[in-house]
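Consider the record:
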Amino acid sequence: MLLPLGLFANNIEVSNVSLSWQNTTTQTVLVQFDVSWENAWRISVGPI
């Protein structure tokens, strides 16, 4: 059994929110947005 590692972030910000597609038959909508937060990490290469 795999247990998730504890991950922490603060000052979460959601920006550039847009509704770009709607299907009234299936009652779905495409929502696009950017998420940023402090204590984020970034890698410049693929998984090793």
Strands lie at 10-23, 28-38.
